[in-house]
Amino acid sequence: MFGSKTKHKRNPSSTTRLAAAVARRPGLRGWRGRGQGEAVYVTAADEWRGTSVQVCGLWPFVGGSGTPIVGVPIGVHTDTGAPFGGDPISWFMHGMINNPSMFVLGLPHYGKSTLVRHIVLGLAGRGINPLILGDLKPDYVDLIRALGGQVISLGPGRGHLNVLDPGEATGAAVRLLASAEEHRAKANRAPDQEAAAQLLAAAVKAEKLAEQLMADSHNRRLNMITALITIVRNAKPSAHEESLIDRALHILDERLDRVPLIGDLIDVIKDAPNELRAIALDRGDMGRYLDATDQLRQSLYSLDGSGRFSDMFSKPTDQPMDLTKPVVFDLSGISDTQRDIQAASLLACWSTGFATVQVAHTLADAALEPRRNYFVVMDELWRALRSGEGMVDRVDSLTRLNRTEGVGQAMITHTMSDLEALPTESERMKARGFVERSGMVVCGALPGGEMEKLNKAVTLSRAEQARLISWADPGSWTDVGGSRKRVRPGLGKFLFKVGGRPGVPVALKLTSVEESLHDTNKRWHDEGEN
After folding, report:
1. Which of 33, 123, 171, 260 is the one with CA 20 to 30 A from 432?
2. Rg (CA), the chain
3. Pick from 96, 93, 94, 137: which is nearest to 117 by CA?
């Protein structure tokens, strides 16, 4: 009938059958009840691990591994919030990377120097001395002062660094030779032949170390003089000029009982000793010798207080490095418009720092000093590489001589374009090698045009490239809360890459204690602002 309601009734027989079927099934631990065989403990299932390619069909619910927490605490994973820690020395010591070095890339004002300072502070807390070999801003002076370290100022009218000073090498060689004599004297009084042989072996080792130390010191001084001449001329010195400088340095060491200066090197060349005349191929004609050495002397005069370098390199060193403390070379007095002076100063600081570190390691090898570890920071790398022909080789020779155990290294520049802008393909390949040989590569915000160049040195996935490009976004026009740093998405964010592994995106976290040490915009603050 229209409008009537039909009421559907559940079949009681089907409900009863379903309840009976459920009742007959055992629970998760078996049949419940006394004597029914219920299990009190259930053994866990076997677990197997495989790649997502191997087990994706068997078990589609895959998850990534946790972030490493070895070394200096850096911050948190930008996606998961998991804590992250790392530094090149700790990862090298734990076998995570093959080389205790890092290369840092990123656009200006996105936190590169802050990250490196944070790592420096963490390593200093573990007893590893930081050596900041050239601070142009300055970015590291306040930190090194807070650590009780040594601040060495360098620049026209601000300080002097004698590039012909062998530093601690001469004194260390004397100590090594004295140690060798002592070992030989003990060998003569040894109770048996075995003890005497060990002492004689130690004496031979000390003598060999002294010889190597002086040879390396000579090569460093030669490389430094030729590098400075390259900057002065914007071209490398000729082969016979390098030979003249090499022999003149040996003559200086034989003649003088003090540390030589640039003026002494000029005087030796002007004196025209027979050894130099033979190298110049003057054939007994003084006119030919003068013609062969005129350009060299002119270049050296530019370093001896009469050129744009003033007396920076022509007077005795003001403050020798103290490798028992953190050290920073403050180059902030050199204007950004004086790029050749900046590059020369950076090279001089790098050479001096590496030479002093090598002396410390040699003395430790001979058991004359305790073993110390160092973390060397080479900032603004691009300035030195662009300063003249052959500078890539100079920087490469400096760094290769000190890649020994106990020394970590950080090289910092803005973009791969800084390396690709070198004049020859050979130099560009060598500069890319700085990135390729680094144990870890840390990338901050980068423009899209950098991705192809960066992929030549380190492999990045499309997702990683997109992340780095997104970090370079300047953000909203709105000044949130009056603080621009809050609207830049890439500020303080970095991608840590090791070989072909997926990169770890990390947001840097600073403690309240160190925040005041990372202010690089002090001159923009009001006078009454803290």
Report:
1. 123
2. 33
3. 137
Element (H, E) at 277: helix 274-280
Residue 429 CA: distances (Å) to CA of 201, 347, 351, 426, 434: 43, 20, 23, 5, 9
Position 503 scores a pLDDT of: 92
Give which of 425, 507, 419 is closest to 457, Cα–Cα: 419
**Least-confidence region, from 33-37, 145-149, 222-226, 287-291:** 33-37
Distances (CA, A) of 466 to 51, 130, 493: 25, 34, 14
pLDDT at 527 over 80: no
**In which band, very low, low, confident or very high, does the pLDDT at 526 lie, cut at 50, 70 and 90?**
low
Q: What is the DSSP letter of 458?
A: S
Angle made by CA atoms 369, 372, 378, in degrees to the nearest 5? 130
Partners of 505 in the beta sheet?
A: 495
pLDDT in tens, 257-311: 899 999 999 999 999 999 999 999 999 999 999 999 999 999 999 999 877 888 8
Residue 246 contacts residue 222 (beta carbons within 8 Å): yes
Coil, strand, or helix at residue 152?
strand
H/E element, 103: strand 101-105
pLDDT of residue 178: 95
Q: Which residue type, as a one-letter code, is found at position 435?
A: V
Give the pLDDT score at 275.
Answer: 94
> Taking the CB of residue 485, how many other CB atoms lie within 10 A of it?
14
Q: What is the band of 11 on the pLDDT scale with cuts at 50, 70, 90?
A: low
Largest CA distance in the chain: 137
What is the DSSP code (8-state) at residue 238? P
Mean pLDDT of 224-253: 92
- Residue 421 vs residue 267, higher pLDDT: 267
Which spans in 326-449 are helix H? 339-365, 381-385, 391-400, 417-420, 425-436
CA dist., res. 324 & res. 321, Å (int): 9
Which stretches of 366-390 are DSSP H helices? Answer: 381-385
Per-residue CA distances from 264 to 245, 259, 271, 287, 424 (Å)? 12, 10, 10, 22, 36
What DSSP character marks residue 336? T
Is a pLDDT exceeding 90 seen at residue 418? no
Using CB atoms within 10 A of its CB, is residue 6 exposed (0-12), middle (13-18) or buried (19+)?
A: exposed
Q: Hey, what are 339's tokens? A: 């790029």
